Amino acid sequence: MALILHIDTATKVSSVAIHHHDKVLGFSQIQEEKSHSAMLTSQIESVCAFCQTPLSSIQAVAVSGGPGSYTGLRIGVSTAKGICFANDIPMLAVSSLHTMYEYVRSQYASDANYWPMIDARRMEVYTACFDTNGQQVTDIHPLIVDSSTFDKWNDKPNILFGDGADKFVDVFQGNPSVQILKNIVPSAAFGNQILQMKFYNSDFVDTAYFEPDYIKEFRLIQPKNKSQL
């Protein structure tokens, strides 16, 4: 099994981990607004030092390929590319939704629909549905959630988790078919099985041309011209 550096900057959480076999050798996580550009490099250095693993020993770099924060994803991907080019190693891309799902299923295994969620502001999230057997049932998509969203999925319990799920606690209060697992955020510590399988199958991305999947186009909002007010 491979020695893989995993970077996840899809949300306001910036995290770095080194995976080897079925273990996480070292891990760093910082949850601060706009900390990625300032802290990511030092996080990588700290984790490598803790694991006594120089970057030259890393066999691949895995990075969150979206969805998530436009700026966060770009910082993570550009950092991963730099390490890959400098050390002539391949790059893996994995969805933070998929790695969150792998973690939750290992902790709360049951016959259910699993909905990892990344916050997309207001009542919208980025999500996909996974089943107990590891199959992705829907494409990754933006979803505006209300109290009736999961009515057509009520043949099984629906387990919601991720930084996008916490805001729906009141919405589904008293709904027996919806369970919300709080305080689970995307993390580079998740996804070891997915990463190792991708490496084993040589499921690498083109380092030079890879771009994360933002789901939505980035929109720059121009400030209002005060002279027009």
UniProtKB/TrEMBL annotation:
Q: Where is the Gcp-like domain?
A: 31-145
Q: Which InterPro entries match?
A: ATPase_NBD (IPR043129), Gcp-like_dom (IPR000905), T6A_TsaB (IPR022496)
- Membrane-crossing ranges are none
Coiled-coil stretches? none
Q: Which GO terms describe its molecular function?
A: tRNA N(6)-L-threonylcarbamoyladenine synthase activity
The answer to whether UniProt assigns keyword Metal-binding to this entry is no
Q: What is its EC number?
A: 2.3.1.234
Sorted alphabetically, the keyword list is: Acyltransferase, Transferase
- List, alphabetically, the NCBIfam families matched: T6A_YeaZ
How is this protein named in the record? tRNA (Adenosine(37)-N6)-threonylcarbamoyltransferase complex dimerization subunit type 1 TsaB
- Where does this protein come from, organism-wise? Shiella aurantiaca
